[in-house]
Structures are given as C-alpha cells and as structure tokens.
Design brief:
This protein has about 280 residues and is of the alpha+beta class. The chain is built from four helices and 13 strands.
Length: about 280
C-alpha cells in the first residue's frame, strides 16, 4: 500500500511539472525580458535571407490578449509592409479541443508601399487547391482601420477599410463568413460578401455585392480591358443539392450581363460555377 502511495505521488509530481513549466513561462512572458525573448523568437522564425520581420513592441496579457506595434516586413529593397498596431485576443486553450478560437483581430493601419521583391527560390505553384484546415477556425471579429496601398501596388493609390468574421472547419459543423471592404480615400467602391451553410438542412446562403467605378481596384486585379466600372449582385438561399442563384454583372456602359451561379458536384466534391444566361 505504501508503494502504491509512492507511485501515485510520483505520477502526480510528473503531471504537475508541465503545469509548473507552462505557468512559469506565462509569468516570464509578462515581464520585459520575457517579452523581449518572445519578440526575438517570432522575428527569427518569420525572417529569412530574403525577408526580415521587425516588431517594435509587444504588450498586453500574453498570450491571451496581445498587442504588437511598429511592425515591418522588409526585403533587400527595404520595407514593403508596415503595421502601426495589431491586437490579438484569443482562447489558446481551445486548441486542445481542435479549435483556433479568436475573439478579435483589431488592426490600426497597414501600409503597403510596394509589392515584395520576387525571391530567387520561390517555388512555382503546383498545388491542387486550398489545403484542408487541420482544425476549426472561429474568428469572432476582424477589423482593419485602414489599408493604404501605394500606387506601385495596383497602379493607383487607394485606402480601404476591412471588417469581417468567420467560422471555418468541418462543413458538418456549419460554416459562415462575412467580409466587407470599402474604399475610404474619396473614391467610391465596396465589396460585401456573406456565406452561411447549415448542415442540418444542407442549406447554403450566399450574398455577394460589388460596386465600384471605372479604374477601380477589382477591375485592376482582374486585368479587365479598359478598367470599366463593376457592378455585381448575387444572392441566394437554398439546398446545396439544388442550388442556383441569379447573377447580374455590369462591366462598363454597354449593358449588363445576366447569368446563373450553380453548385455542381463532380466526383462527390461540390464546387460553385458561374455562366452567362443561355450557356
């Protein structure tokens, strides 16, 4: 009996060691030397011979509610991305249950003066689509006060604000996402997207709205001839096995193009496709 008590006590001590280590690391991260070490680890992990990450300061209740400031990414030609402030509030222990649970990502100002230089060792894309997420991602709130794009990025200077949220993972648990992008530099332009999938009824709601004038950001990204104004409207709620939405697209002044967006299921994998009316 005495030996059993000794074994139980030894096992208890072994179980306490990781808790003590984690607790010690959490306490160490709350003081200046610990935060400086954490910043160094992050900068080292994210940097390479062709890219350098710099973080000016790390504050907050680490790791639960953290704010980084004066963040920059540089290559051989200098800084190509800078962020004045970014706050992350999340639930790290939810990872034990297989969920990346983020309460809030709040970013002040992002500046992109140019695109990064192409690296010599950049591999060509040989993938077959987006990889499956190894865990569920829950993002309660994304807020970016402003993204400032300099003229070299898209051929015109622009400033946009970004808002959104998402719940992504196993479709059997349900999916949802929201994204709102709006230009705030004196030029009109909005993108609004909503998606919600209910596994109980296998119902998909999709709502997409795009409205921007000529020489807008999306027409530049799409490399449309003449950079025409864009107006896109798609909205539908219905079962995924019989899902079709009316699509209205206006690109330029000659007139609008009507069509349908449908969900197809080739080889037991669903996908969304769009085609003009009559095709």
């Amino acid at each position: 009996m005495r030996n059993l008590r000794r074994i139980a006590g030894f096992v208890g001590i072994l179980l306490l060691i990781p808790l003590v280590l984690v607790g010690g690391l959490l306490l160490f991260a709350q003081i200046a030397p610990g935060r400086a070490l954490l910043v160094w680890v992050i900068e080292s992990a994210a940097s390479s011979d062709e890219a350098t990450l710099q973080i000016g300061d790390l504050t907050g209740r680490i790791p639960f509610d953290m704010t980084v400031s004066d963040v920059s990414m540089a290559d051989g030609d200098g800084v190509w991305l800078s962020v004045d402030r970014a706050r992350l509030r999340w639930r790290p222990f939810a990872l034990i249950g297989g969920t990346l649970s983020i309460e809030m990502i709040d970013v002040g100002s992002v500046s992109v003066p140019r695109l990064p230089a192409a690296g010599e060792s950049d591999p060509e894309d040989s993938g077959g689509g987006l990889p499956a997420l190894p865990f569920e991602v829950v993002l309660d709130r994304l807020s970016v006060g402003e993204v400032v794009l300099a003229e070299p990025v898209l051929g015109v200077a622009a400033t946009v604000t970004v808002e959104g949220d998402a719940r992504l993972g196993d479709p059997a648990d349900g999916l949802s996402a929201r994204l709102d992008v709006e230009r705030i530099d004196g030029t009109a332009g909005t993108i609004a997207a909503r998606m919600n999938y209910s596994p109980e009824s296998e119902t998909l709601h999709l709502d997409l709205s795009v409205d921007e004038p000529a020489r807008g950001l999306l027409s530049r990204l799409s490399d449309l001839p003449g950079l025409p104004p864009l107006l896109v409207d798609l909205s539908r709620t219905g079962p995924t096995d019989d899902w079709a939405a009316d699509l209205m697209l206006l690109a330029g002044t000659p007139g609008s193009t009507a069509g349908k967006a449908t969900i197809t299921r080739p080889a037991e994998r669903r996908g969304i496709s769009a085609a003009p009316a009559g095709h």
